[in-house]
């Protein structure tokens, strides 16, 4: 099997102290699965609207109410679609949502979905000082754990910083979920700590419905999502594949759009060898494939071009 040596070896040019180790040839999913599908909902409210202000310093009210729909109606519709199909998803949740709207977070947890961190006020992490970002980690993780009484093992930023993977490992989390660099999850290592980067594909609902999620055709969105799955699922004949979807309750929880989500899940569930999994389950399987539990150093298997 052909391997790109740049992919097989470690990467150190990401700007982070955490090293990326690609182990495509080692990854396996639990038998009898060959395609892992991970549906992730980024649950945020009006936080992003707070940065969109006019010359008078006032919040953009249209953006505010568009995004607040996620917590008023969108989340309930998304949960119903998932419940009717017995699908467990991952919800990355902002700390402010947990603090101000705890009932919605408890409803997510009650349905058995995984809960991960997503910043406090959906901060753009790119240029944050490390200690400020660490405070956001600790505040959000503390709120989510206290509210649900359950472990929180993963993190997704809004535009991660070079420090984000380091903080994921320093805070003892199992996985980070921010990179678009490749198709399969890979290892993050720093000193004696090991975690997983649970990668993304750029075909979530913000892009299929327009950058801010305010336009677009649900039939087009479904066609893009279906073709992504079909293409990767076809490749699973040769090796395990991973199909992630990054969605938002304020976008995909709208009428009509929720139907596209339902059609996608129905399509996926009609195919063989498919594991509908959470991000935590994917990370656990990757660590098991690499034969290194979380928190222990990893050594990637050397590969050569064939």
Describe the 3D structure.
This protein is α/β, with parallel strands linked by helices. The protein has one domain: Glycoside hydrolase/deacetylase (TIM Barrel, Alpha-Beta Barrel). 39% of the residues lie in helices and 15% in strands. A six-stranded mixed β-sheet has the order 1-2-8-9-7-6, sandwiched between helices. Pfam families: Polysacc_deac_1 (PF01522). This is Polysaccharide deacetylase family protein. InterPro entries: Glyco_hydro/deAcase_b/a-brl, NODB_dom.
Give the gist of this structure.
39% of the residues lie in helices and 15% in strands. It is built from eleven helices and eleven strands. 45% of the residues are buried.
Layout of helices and strands, plus pairs?
Blueprint: H1 5-8, E1 10-11, E2 19-21, E3 35-43, H2 61-84, E4 90-93, H3 95-100, H4 102-110, E5 114-117, H5 130-148, E6 154-155, H6 164-170, E7 175-176, E8 186-190, E9 193-197, H7 205-208, H8 218-235, E10 241-247, H9 249-252, H10 257-269, E11 274-277, H11 279-289
Parallel strand pairs: 3-4, 3-10, 3-11, 4-5, 6-7, 7-9
Antiparallel strand pairs: 1-2, 2-8, 8-9
């Amino acid at each position: 099997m052909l391997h790109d040596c740049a992919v097989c070896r470690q990467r150190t040019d990401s700007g982070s102290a955490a090293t990326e180790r690609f182990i495509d040839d080692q990854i396996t999913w639990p038998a009898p699965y060959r395609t892992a599908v991970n549906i992730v909902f980024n649950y945020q409210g009006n936080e992003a609207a707070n940065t969109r202000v006019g010359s008078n310093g006032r919040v953009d009210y249209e953006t505010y109410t568009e995004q607040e729909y996620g917590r008023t109606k969108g989340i309930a519709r998304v949960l119903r679609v998932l419940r009717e199909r017995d699908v467990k998803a991952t919800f990355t949740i902002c700390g402010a949502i947990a603090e101000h709207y705890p009932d919605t977070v408890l409803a997510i947890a009650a349905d058995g979905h995984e809960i991960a961190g997503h910043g406090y006020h959906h901060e753009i992490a790119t240029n944050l000082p490390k200690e400020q970002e660490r405070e956001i980690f600790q505040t959000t993780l503390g709120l989510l754990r206290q509210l649900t009484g359950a472990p929180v093992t993963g993190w997704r930023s809004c535009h991660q910083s070079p420090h984000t993977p380091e903080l994921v490992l320093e805070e003892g989390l199992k996985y980070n979920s921010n990179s678009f660099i490749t198709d399969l999850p890979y290892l993050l290592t720093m000193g004696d700590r090991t975690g997983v980067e649970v990668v993304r594909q750029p075909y979530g609902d913000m892009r299929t419905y327009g950058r801010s999620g305010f336009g677009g055709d649900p039939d087009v969105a479904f066609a893009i999502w279906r073709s992504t799955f079909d293409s990767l699922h076809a490749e699973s004949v040769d090796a395990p594949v991973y199909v992630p979807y990054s969605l938002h309750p304020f976008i995909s929880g709208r009428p009509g759009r929720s139907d596209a989500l339902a059609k996608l899940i129905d399509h996926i569930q009609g195919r063989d060898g498919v594991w509908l999994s959470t991000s935590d389950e994917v990370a656990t399987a990757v660590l098991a494939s690499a034969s290194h539990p979380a928190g222990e150093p990893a050594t990637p298997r050397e590969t050569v071009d064939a």
